[in-house]
């Protein structure tokens, strides 16, 4: 009868470095590391690793799909070794305890108990390793159980073993669902000690986790998601239909994101099982984990169906007027449907956005105000037949400025507008330094006493420093333009910040330097969604950047290119992508392409440059063809490009230096925002790694990315519709 010798104990502790428990999880890992030093004397470096013996104050960033070694230590007798790795937002602390030929699992267990506290951890796995004097097989389970002191009450797990690669025999010593701790026995036949180490402790010469540890990590993540779901409220109960609309959208998005995560995690677990050599049909003790994943998926499908029904009920109730989204800024004094109809005169330099996002915002705003019950005229220097037809279809009156010989387009705007019946508008609207001065002049010269709203779209203090091709001093330019923005607002009835980032800037300005009424207006996310937008497009995947690229440094074009180069290096061999940049200045496509090719290096990425276009069909088609939109701006007041991607249902990554990024962080469930909002720092290498990680994550599983995009669209359309934006504006200016 074979006997078990060379008993060792390996423990893998998993900690989640995201969400509300991040600080406590990192603290728990550091305490465990220090405890190993205090109680197990692991204070010496492990020379072969080249790693420090202490955890650095600042942890390195994790890499998706890979493991970054952080620290390693051992005791003087080399009987205890500890290593810390990071993968993505997970820390993995691994401990190996040996004590020579006389070591016993129970004795090693007692040593580990002096330092291990799993309260703040994602999960803990204890692996009881040993070699046998004969063939290792499932029939040895009872011998292993006796060495662990197991009794009949724990489910007779020793009857349910499995043989994996290298002739290793494996049992789950706690087959029942027993919280976040797993205990497995792994025995090796004579001569297979190296295979045992590769399975449970470390792959020689690599930082990666061994396959058994990888598998247990993925299963721990699924169990954690199950616990989160158990604590969640999916009832849909809310005080009002408007609140129910948002709550059900958020809950649906969270459940969809959770289901995607569980799918991806179980696929990773199956990959680890394949590396381990476990059979696809006979999983032995791992079959319970597969059953859990399948059951959890069915439960999530049921929950998502329920919350989608709740969302549809709430949407119908709000659309029929039985509920109203509340104003976040101004108390309503008169019901909206009882107020007189206000006439807005919005001053713009164009109707279709040939010059950028400000014009697109003005068009969306005019349309939303009409839908909210206002009468809207939009003054433009000139208009085309398609522009007039587009405005008429939306109920907006497009007013061309009066022409005269020798007048420029801008000078035309300063003449008295030809409004129907020479009526006087109730509100005049100007946009930043583009039309704010014209709106101010029109209001003061032709409509004295008429309230004026000055919209702010950018913050020169943030933007000008990244315009490297200017000859004048950036600091002087930033101060002058910021001061002009505020001077244009003086005398206005209200100052309107587009999005949360600009609102933070204007809110800190002294009240004497701005109008008494300060509003924040978040653009709406409830535009039409293409009927065929059900998943990623076919063919070779395309990544898209949109925007005027005269200021490529501001837009972060280099960050996008370097991130793509980093990302494609993480993909499987043979991967090829297309990159389309829409927004080249006149005669600038060639130089822009050369810059991109330099940043991309020798990577299989095909680059196409198109000029900027005001034709909505072209932009719509660009978005429909794309698998991912990038907006890695170093400074962005809001970021309408990213919003349009969300409305179109296209996956998008946006900079946290944008107003849109901050809004998504505020409104989306944390797990969805983390997949869409990416930090941009002054460290170009760090930017490339961070953006590369998330780009590769999207492109590796485009179906999941499109599901996340749909979740984000649902939540944002419920939380920030154009009806809310227009309603808050009407609330602010109505008598």
Which assembly state applies to the chains in this document? single chain
Mind describing the biggest β-sheet? 9 strands, mixed
Number of strands: 22
Instruction: Give the spatial strand order of the biggest sheet.
Output: 2-3-4-5-1-6-9-8-7
Form type: elongated
Question: Treating each run of at least 4 consecutive H or I residues as one helix, how many helices?
Answer: 24
Strand content: 15-25%
Distance between the termini: 94 Å
- Backbone structural class: alpha/beta
Proportion of helical residues: 40-55%
Number of domains: 4
User: What's the alpha carbon Rg, rounded to whole Å?
Assistant: 31 Å
Average pLDDT level: 86
Spans of at least 5 consecutive residues whose pLDDT stays below 50 are 322-334
Describe this structure in words.
Residues 517-539 are annotated as: Disordered. This protein has 735 residues and is α/β, with parallel strands linked by helices. It folds into four domains: 4-208, no CATH class; 210-323; 338-524 and 725-733, Rossmann fold (3-Layer(aba) Sandwich); 542-719, Glycogen Phosphorylase B (Rossmann fold, 3-Layer(aba) Sandwich). Helix content is 43%, strand content 17%. It is built from 24 helices and 22 strands. A nine-stranded mixed β-sheet has the order 2-3-4-5-1-6-9-8-7, with helices on both faces. The chain is elongated and about 105 Å long. The chain starts with a strand and ends with a helix. Mean pLDDT is 86; it is low at 322-334.
